[in-house]
Amino acid sequence: MSQVRRQLARPRPSWGWQDDAACRGEDLVLFFGPDGERQPERDVRERKAKAICAGCPVRNECLDYALSRPEKYGTWGGLNEDERASERRRRMRRAASAGITAA
């Protein structure tokens, strides 16, 4: 008998929020950076991307999407890769804490 490997069922993403994104029509390099980018240039680029994200009406949806996947690269919802990893850990701790207090 062959074994069937089950895959984690992720909800299919809803892309409708992207229609209202402040970054729509912007150059993708601003949010994902070019190959070989040096840290000073990356800092400037990320500040510009985050400024666009700051006024975005769908910032929370974008961040939630990136955290649920998880997106490994780029600026999503105003956070870069390292910031999203920290946010993901914070949310996991908060969820675990809520689970303990609810028991």
Notes on the structure:
The protein is mostly helical and 103 residues long. The protein has a domain at 37-101. Helices cover 50% and strands 0% of the residues. The protein has 4 helices and no strands. The termini are far apart.
Main attributes of the structure:
mainly alpha; 4 helices
How would you summarize this macromolecular structure in one to three sentences?
With 103 residues, the chain is mainly alpha-helical. It is built from four helices and no strands.
C-alpha geometry: globular
* Main beta sheet strand tally, sense and closure: none
- How many β-strand runs? 0
Structural class of the secondary elements? mainly alpha
- Roughly what is the average pLDDT, rounded to an integer? 87
- State the order of secondary-structure elements, H for helix, E for strand: HHHH
Estimated share of beta-strand residues = under 5%
InterPro entries: 4FE4S_WBL, Whib
Domain 4Fe-4S Wbl-type: 22-86
Binding site for [4Fe-4S] cluster: 23, 53, 56, 62
Cofactor: [4Fe-4S] cluster
Helix-strand blueprint:
Elements: H1 29-32, H2 39-54, H3 59-68, H4 81-102
